[in-house]
Amino acid sequence: MTRILTVPGWGSSGPEHWQSIWEREHGFQRVEQQDWETPQLRDWVAQLDEAIGQSEESTVLVAHSLGCQAVAHWGCCVINHPVKAVLMVAPPYLDGPDVPAELQNFVPMHLEPLPFQVLVVASSNDPYASLEQAEQLVQAWGGQLVNVGEKGHINSASGLGDWPEGYRLLQALLEPYCVDP
């Protein structure tokens, strides 16, 4: 059996966000954070590690936005528990002058190969990472990139609802593990 954990980004994922919908429709579990508004990297990574360690089941992560950066930090520096694969959706690129003060503790980004399969989903008009920047993250993490076209930050503001295209990408990612989420 494979367990799916969602890892929301800054501010969490509201009820209309595809992550929240997937949790309701498919029983995925959310990695909860103590503070969604003023994220602390150390705390987010510790919460992620604790959530992964709560089960002996194989784990696949579905991260969005800043949650992707937390997963990258965890994968490069902590890894106390195994993860099979990660679907990273709309990871922000945090190397630049426009990084909000609240996110400065997530800098520098970890840009090393991750020890699990990584599928990065990017939008061609994401305000937080250009396709070129998303490709740099993919190259560093040793993953694969899927460009889903103009979908903004691939969040509830993008009007995706349950985002069937993303769910199909997750199913393809899970296929090697013979799991039907």
TrEMBL record:
NAD keyword on record: no
Pfam families (UniProt xref): Ser_hydrolase
Keywords: Hydrolase
Keyword Hydrolase: yes
Molecular functions per Gene Ontology: hydrolase activity
Name of the protein this chain belongs to: Alpha/beta hydrolase
Protein species of origin: Deinococcus roseus
